[in-house]
């Protein structure tokens, strides 16, 4: 169980002074220089030859153990003093003191750190610097690695996903490291690298990021904190203010539709985006999802992006998506994700009465010409602002009749 002392911030400088390795006056001078240069205190202490790099590493290790509640402040001070006087590593000094801890060795280091190191996502020097920054700032190691630009949010998310798979005994550590290394080198997802089905947690994270409700970096941060504190990702998102309960509940409801094959990720993401940006009820959107999907197909045909042959060929290639023609068309590369987004937003704008069929088709054609989703979005907004006040739902009914 965690020691209450782990809740007390432990500064490296204070720890070194308490262990009688650095004098208080020298610490004050080093702090001033560190602030002026904008560098970590530890780096300045080494530069001033007040301590060695090995001793700094030992102090960082001691700090981590204190924060974990694994050792007392008295043990940390004694071990550091012994490290300094006998030129020992902290682990060696603790051994001499008779202290044992199964996690205090390279093989059992923080699992995320070890996984990133073994899969060659980071090297030892980068990891050491990240650990130092993490210890100093209190931020999780993964978040620090992203902020340092050493790894990307998506790659960190893959690493955290791998740890979850290990925790649930779906893969072992070696498989996780190999899969992560392959994913990093090829750009494929971890699921593809390991040839496994996407987990519900990662799928939910993808839905939240695809809808631009939460960033990939924040999803990774939430999963990492959840792993550390043994809390579900959604609880972390809500507690940290990254998403409210309504958005999380809507995302979970939409995720179930994805799992049942009733919606594609793109369709669900667009719905969640509207729930977040416009305050629309997810139940209301789901109530007209079938009509919207039919309207999307009809609009894509009217814009001459697809025809009936494309639909038939896509369904032949992907019969599992017979109830979702849009997903079948995407899987067979008959249409792009950008075209689907433009068509979805146009169809929803029609159902809201903001634009008519002609404006919707022009929006999709504009996207096709410009190959940029922002242009399509701008055209929707522009069309909405100039929409005829007589625009009604009748044109939508006419449009849907053409798909029958």
- Tell me the radius of gyration: 28 Å
SSE succession: HHHHHHHHHHHHHHHHHHHHHHHHH
Major sheet: none
Q: What is the mean predicted local confidence, pLDDT?
A: 80
Class based on secondary structure composition and strand pairing = mainly alpha
Structure summary, number of beta strands: 0
Instruction: Name the helicity range.
Output: 55-70%
Low-confidence stretches: 1-9, 102-109, 372-404
Give the percentage of residues in beta strands.
Answer: under 5%
Quickly count the helices. Answer: 25
Number of domains: 3
> Separation of termini?
64 Å
Net shape: elongated
Short summary:
This protein has 404 residues and is an all-alpha fold. The chain has helices at residues 12-18, 24-37, 41-47, 53-68, 73-86, 90-96, 111-118, 124-137, 141-147, 153-167, 173-186, 190-194, 200-210, 216-229, 233-239, 245-259, 265-278, 282-287, 289-302, 308-317, 325-331, 337-351, 357-370, 373-385, 394-401. It starts with 11 loop residues before the first helix and ends with a helix.
């Amino acid at each position: 169980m965690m020691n209450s002392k782990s809740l007390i911030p432990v500064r490296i400088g204070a720890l070194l002074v308490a262990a009688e390795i650095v004098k208080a006056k020298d610490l004050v001078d080093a702090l001033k220089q560190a602030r002026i240069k904008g560098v970590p205190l530890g780096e300045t202490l080494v530069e001033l030859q007040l301590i060695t790099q090995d001793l700094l590493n030992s102090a960082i290790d001691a700090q981590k153990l204190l924060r974990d509640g694994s050792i007392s402040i008295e043990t940390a001070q004694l071990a550091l003093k012994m490290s300094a006087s006998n030129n020992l590593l902290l682990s060696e000094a603790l051994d001499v003191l008779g202290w044992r801890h199964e996690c205090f060795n390279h093989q059992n280091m923080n699992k995320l750190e070890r996984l990133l190191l073994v899969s060659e996502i980071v090297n030892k020097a980068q990891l050491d610097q990240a650990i130092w920054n993490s210890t100093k700032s209190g931020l999780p190691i993964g978040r620090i690695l992203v902020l340092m630009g050493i790894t990307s949010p998506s790659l960190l998310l893959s690493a955290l996903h791998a740890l979850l798979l290990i925790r649930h005994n779906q893969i072992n550590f070696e498989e996780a490291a190999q899969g992560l290394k392959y994913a990093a080198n090829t750009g494929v997802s971890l699921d593809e690298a390991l040839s496994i089905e996407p987990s519900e947690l990662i799928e939910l994270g993808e839905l939240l990021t695809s809808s631009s409700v939460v960033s990939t970096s924040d999803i990774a941060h939430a999963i990492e904190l959840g792993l550390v504190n043994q809390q579900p990702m959604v609880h972390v998102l809500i507690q940290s203010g990254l998403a409210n309960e309504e958005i999380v509940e809507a995302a979970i409801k939409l995720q179930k539709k994805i799992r049942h094959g009733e919606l594609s990720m793109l369709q669900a993401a667009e719905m969640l985006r509207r729930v977040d940006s416009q305050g629309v009820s997810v139940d209301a959107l789901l109530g007209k999802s079938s009509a919207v999907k039919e309207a999307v197909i009809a609009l894509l045909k009217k814009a001459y992006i697809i025809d009936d042959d494309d639909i038939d060929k896509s369904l032949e290639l992907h019969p599992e998506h017979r109830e979702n023609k849009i997903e079948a068309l995407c899987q067979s590369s008959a249409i792009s994700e950008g075209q689907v987004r433009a068509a979805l937003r146009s169809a929803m704008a029609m159902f809201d009465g903001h634009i008519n069929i002609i404006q919707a088709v022009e929006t999709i054609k504009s996207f096709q010409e410009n190959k940029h989703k922002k242009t399509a979005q701008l055209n929707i907004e522009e069309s909405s602002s100039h929409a005829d006040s007589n625009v009604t739902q009748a044109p939508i009914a006419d449009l849907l009749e053409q798909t029958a």
